[in-house]
Design a protein that fits this description.
Blueprint (H helix, E strand, L loop, with lengths): L13 E6 L2 H18 L4 E5 L8 H5 L9 E5 L7 H12 L5 E7 L6 H9 L3 E5 L5 H14 L6 H11 L3 H14 L6 H8 L2 H4 L1 H9 L3 H13 L4 H20 L6 H8 L3 H10 L5 H21 L3 H16 L4
Parallel strand pairs: 1-4, 1-5, 2-3, 3-4
Length: 328
């Protein structure tokens, strides 16, 4: 496998996804799985959680099958593999099995560099998944999202979307998909502003601010006002989801990390870190999970899954506010 695989060869024996951007890493994995299942609907996918690949495990997973089935083996956080396991992987790279695609997810950098170099030397198909720390990179990402969805957006629209949402690529991708689904024609600044800035900040995000702090009555009042003035319903569910996700992210961050580092790691401006810290009092991990499920159900309802989307939104607001008081 010394010859380098083409970037378009999704079924190459080895795909190496390098970087620390979770969305891009997940997409790299998903592309390989989709291609493998298009070639063989019965493809066996083994997605190994970090730390589960032990010495001898790879040989077991890649041993010939009686039925010669296609298989995809995904190894996450490959930079953290132990020395003996790395030896197994390097040995496998010298003689990869037929009908098997190995996907290595590696953070890049100095840790585990020997495995990284070995994979490249073996001719791996490589996918770059870097953290996007520069505003220009995020703008390019949003432009590419719209292009991949078959739509066009004005430069002002992409800038407004990035300004309104920030650096979280999952939320940027979700917003681009939502706008594409809801709006016909070219997506311009006015459309983005209607969904995510201006009045939306005074309604959808205000609803979310009340809900995530457990103030049910105020959240429902703001929701009813938003509905009465015709705010886009998906924008409200987006605001609720963003508020809950921010709490979940901050709650899972290592304690003692300074606000500046947290802002970089979590993709939030420093002022938002302080704000979310105040909002997260009373929340639990189970509460975050329950709230996200409620918001997901409401989002499906407002996009055509319910005859009464307003009621679905009210249920979601009540569920989020109740979750915010879980510790009480």
């Amino acid at each position: 496998m010394a010859r380098k695989a083409s970037p378009d060869d999704l079924l190459a024996p080895l795909t190496l996804a390098v970087g620390q951007e979770d969305l891009l890493l997940d997409r790299a994995v998903r592309e390989v799985i989709v291609a493998a299942r298009a070639a063989d609907a019965d493809t066996d996918v083994r997605d190994l959680p970090p730390g589960t690949l032990q010495p001898g495990t790879l040989a077991e997973l890649t041993s010939p099958s009686l039925f010669a089935e296609r298989k995809v083996v995904i190894v996450r956080e490959a930079q953290d593999l132990g020395a003996d396991t790395i030896k197994d992987v390097k040995a496998y790279l010298d003689a990869p099995a037929e009908e098997i695609t190995l996907v290595l997810l590696h953070a890049g950098g100095a840790k585990g560099k020997g495995l990284l170099d070995a994979a490249r030397k073996a001719g791996a198909r490589e996918v770059a998944c870097p953290k996007m720390t520069k505003p220009a990179d995020r703008l390019a990402f949003v432009r590419n999202e719209f292009r991949a969805l078959g739509r066009s957006a004005t430069p002002e629209a992409t800038q407004t979307l990035v300004d309104a949402i920030g650096s979280d690529l999952r939320e940027l991708a979700s917003a681009a998909a939502q706008l594409t689904a809801d709006v016909e024609g070219t997506i311009d600044e006015a459309v983005v502003a209607r969904y995510y800035t201006g009045r939306a900040e005074a309604t959808g995000f205000e609803v979310a601010d009340f809900a995530v702090t457990g103030r049910t009555a105020e959240a429902l009042e703001r929701l009813r006002w938003a509905l009465s003035v015709g705010q886009p319903l998906p924008g409200i569910t987006f605001a609720l989801a963003s508020g809950v996700r921010a709490i979940g992210k901050l709650a899972s961050a290592p304690r003692g990390t300074n606000p500046g580092q947290l802002a970089r790691d979590l993709g939030m401006p420093p002022w938002k870190i302080d704000r979310v810290r105040q909002q997260m009092r009373g929340w639990t991990g189970d509460g975050v999970s329950a709230a996200l499920r409620a918001v997901a159900e409401a989002d499906a309802a407002v996009k055509g899954g319910s005859a009464d989307p307003a009621y679905a939104l009210e249920k979601a607001v009540v569920a989020v506010a109740r979750a915010a008081r879980a510790r009480s």
